[in-house]
Amino acid sequence: MDTALLARTETGLLFVIPWEGQWLVGDTDIDWPYDPDDVAHTSADVAELLKRLNSQIFKEITPGQILSVFAGLRPLAADGNQADSRELSRTHTIATPMPGLTVICGGKFTTYRKMAVDLIDIVANDVSGRTPRSSTHKIVLVGGAGFSDRKARRENIAAEMGWPVERVDRLLHKYGSCIDDLVTLVRARPDLGVPLTGVQDTLRGEIVYACSHEGALHLADVMERRTRFAMLEPMGGAAALREIATLMQEELGWTDEQVEVEIASYASLTSVDGEIR
């Protein structure tokens, strides 16, 4: 899965991107006039995307093949004259409405470092000589330092751990050089080097790592944000739910009652067809 599709259809832009062993299809761009806390997709959104997708491929995709659907809000900066959100710029805007207060609006997650640079540099200019300009572009993200070395040694790591090279590639993509910490966990507890049952190739150690190194405190933290099983697996990853909860229980010291509460809480967030509520 190394090919993506980007096309302009009669009803809008379409992208199909390989992601974590599945395909990510998007997106819609409509106004949301309701409470931001209640944002959700609609059946019309799904139908529209399927229409765009099926206009570009030979074999029709049906609603039953969709694993999950998610929706979010994007803040856009407007001057009040545009009637359609599609007419608005996707870039961020910075303003100083009063002395000592500089604000930023618009933008998106994928440009957060650029947004930070622009905002901090403007603020720094107002504090003459006392504040250095932003240096975020020089800061390596967690897992970035030493990544190239681990990548070059991928086959050695695979041989040392008895893993397929493809697994090491996935772990490097997910953890970067922090793969060292995961390897340390597995060497101390070989049972953590075994894949979970019922889901795509994910090691038991990745669940423990999520708790010990990534701050996961609840089952939903792991299922939605650390492994993405909520979106990537049928039934939101239900096949591995009990095994994951047991691993978290051992790591976090949950009681049996807490395990059942966590499972029930996660089940309430995920409907039977894997859609995130």
The poorly predicted ranges are: 272-277
Taking the alpha carbons of the first and last residues, their distance comes to: 28 Å
What's the overall geometry?
A: globular
Estimated helix fraction: 25-40%
Class per helix and strand makeup = alpha+beta
| Rg of Cα set | 22 Å
Main β sheet profile: 3 strands, antiparallel
Q: What integer is the average pLDDT?
A: 89
What percent of residues are in strands? 5-15%
Strand element count: 5
How many helices? The count is: 11
- In the sheet with the most strands, the strands line up as 1-2-3
Brief description of this entry?
The chain is an alpha+beta fold and 277 residues long. Helix content is 39%, strand content 10%. Helix 10 (241-252) packs across helix 11.
